[in-house]
Write a structure and sequence with these properties.
Layout (H helix, E strand, L loop, with lengths): L1 H35 L6 H24 L1 E2 L2 E2 L5 E6 L4 E6 L16 H52 L6 H24 L2 H10 L1
Antiparallel strand pairs: 1-2, 3-4
Helix pairs in contact: 1-2, 1-3, 1-4, 3-4, 3-5
Amino acid sequence: AIRNNEDAISMLRTAEAALQTVTNILQRMRDLAVQSSNGTNSNKNRHSLNKEFQSLTEQIGYIGETTKFNDLSVFDGQNRRVTLDDIGHTVYISKSIPPSPTQHDIKISTEQEARTTIRKIEEALQSVSLHRADLGSMINRLQFNIENLNNQSMALTDAASLIEDADMAQEMSDFLKFKLLTEVAISMVSQANQIPQMVSKLLQS
């Protein structure tokens, strides 16, 4: 159970690190859009800003394609079965990557396009921030879970050496409660896997 929690934390941290990078990219995209929305910019300047902007949209797609955990792609567009053998729990994680920049027309080559894009990026940043907060909360819960499981294991060992017929019902109940946290963590990873697609949809809307 402890190993499952540790693996879940590692996967959640991998997803969170990817979202941190996505956040940084979106913030740079917002800066470029703000610059392009300035009425004093020439078309040549906007073209240059838009070129970098489009490169950043490609980078978000690259993150979706290359983010991995234990040599497995986190955002690979596939449904992957994850089985935790020691607790007999199986979940299906749906993963997807964002469409390539050619599949949408988000750009900042005119002042009006830039103003529209700023709103879309703000919405994307807000959504990513909320998902990152959820991931951080789950990581903290799992860390407490590991600590409790370690303490529980030590307590059970001490009790077994003193009382052979100890009542295990409550201990098993506590263990199942902690196991459920692991299952919730896997569910959270499933939600995180949808974030690149979510960002792209927000930018297209």
